Amino acid sequence: MQAGVEDRIADLGCWTGRIEIEPLKGGISNESYLVSDGLGRHVVRFGKDYPFHHVLREREIMTARAAHEAGFGPKVEHSAPGVMVSAFLAARTFAADDVRANAERVAALLRRFHEAMPAHVTGPGFMFWPFHVIRDYARTLEAGKSRMSAQVPRYLELCRVLEAAQTPLPIVFAHNDLLPANILDDGERLWLIDFEYAGFSTAMFDLAGTTSNAGFSDDQADDFLAGYFGGTAPTEIRRSHSAMQCASLLREAMWSMVSEIHLSAPGADYESYTDDNLVRLETALQHHQSTYGKL
User: pLDDT over 90 for what percent of the chain?
Assistant: First the structure.
């Protein structure tokens, strides 16, 4: 545990009686702790604004409150600049195989989230368009003299063709960071956590992120799309989904490249994470082109 963390948590002033603190693992850009007091267990999450990642904590807290109100996330019990305290969920954190095994439930969860959240979010609308994020990351990488700067023109051209491959869909309010660990199961229902990147977007980014991050096969992805759309997805949706899987991996790789420059989280190896995602991206691109033809 980092020096001073116990005092920072104790000074929040939202506890009842004596507290016990233990670190929570899993995040690669934020610090989270499990805190027990006289009323139960709580999650304390520290995080700064990250303009280079388009992350604003005030907006994240608003979204977390809206997600609880809409029935998707834990209750936000306390917030202050740079910190959020949420109710602890006695739930299992999903791994990739859990997402695949519960694909129908996850698809239904995302459909409900996309449809219900606009009625609960407040304040200025935030648009998360993954292709804009990629283009902005490219500027950040060049300004920061990234080790990957020579590849930026290729990434921008790839962004252009992947964006052109998208089928127009209605705007929804999306999560936009659907790693398996951001889905929890309490045995009765599924929950979503970590709303740093949530905003108005295309459903396809959540659908592609879910299937890509959880390693769905083609048949599993087709079934997942059918579950979300309420029937067998037409070819243009499946082609768009495949292209967005590539875009999701490109965005994740470039997120990591930017993090190499601007972040230093305990235990995080951003260079390895970048390289892993680039390998996955090349595999996804080869698969897309062998299935649907040259981009």
Answer: 93
Say if residues 1 and 27 touch (Cβ distance below 8 Å).
no
The burial of 256, by beta-carbon neighbours within 10 Å (0-12 exposed, 13-18 middle, 19 or more buried), is given as buried
Measured over the CA atoms of residue 243, residue 248, residue 249 and residue 255, the dihedral's sign is: positive
Segment 220-277, tens digit of pLDDT: 999 999 999 999 999 999 999 999 999 999 999 999 999 999 998 777 899 999 999 9
Sheet of strand 40-46: strand arrangement = 20-24, 31-37, 40-46, 83-87, 76-80
Find out whether 237 and 217 touch, Cβ atoms under 8 Å: no
CA 189 to chain CA centroid, nearest Å: 20
Domain boundaries, the chain: 92-292
* pLDDT on residue 264: 86
Half-sphere exposure of 53 (CA within 13 A, CB side): 27
Give pLDDT, residue 4: 83
> Where does residue 202 fall: left (phi above 0), alpha (psi -120 to 50 degrees), or beta otherwise?
beta
First-last CA distance in the chain:
47
CA torsion 134→138→140→142, rounded to 10°?
170
CATH topology of domain 92-292: Aminoglycoside 3'-phosphotransferase; Chain: A, domain 2 (3.90.1200)
- The SS3 call for residue 13 is coil
- Sorted by sequence, the CB contacts under 8 Å of residue 53 that are 6+ apart come out as 29, 196, 197, 255, 258, 259
Containing H/E element for 265? none
CA distance 111 to 177: 15
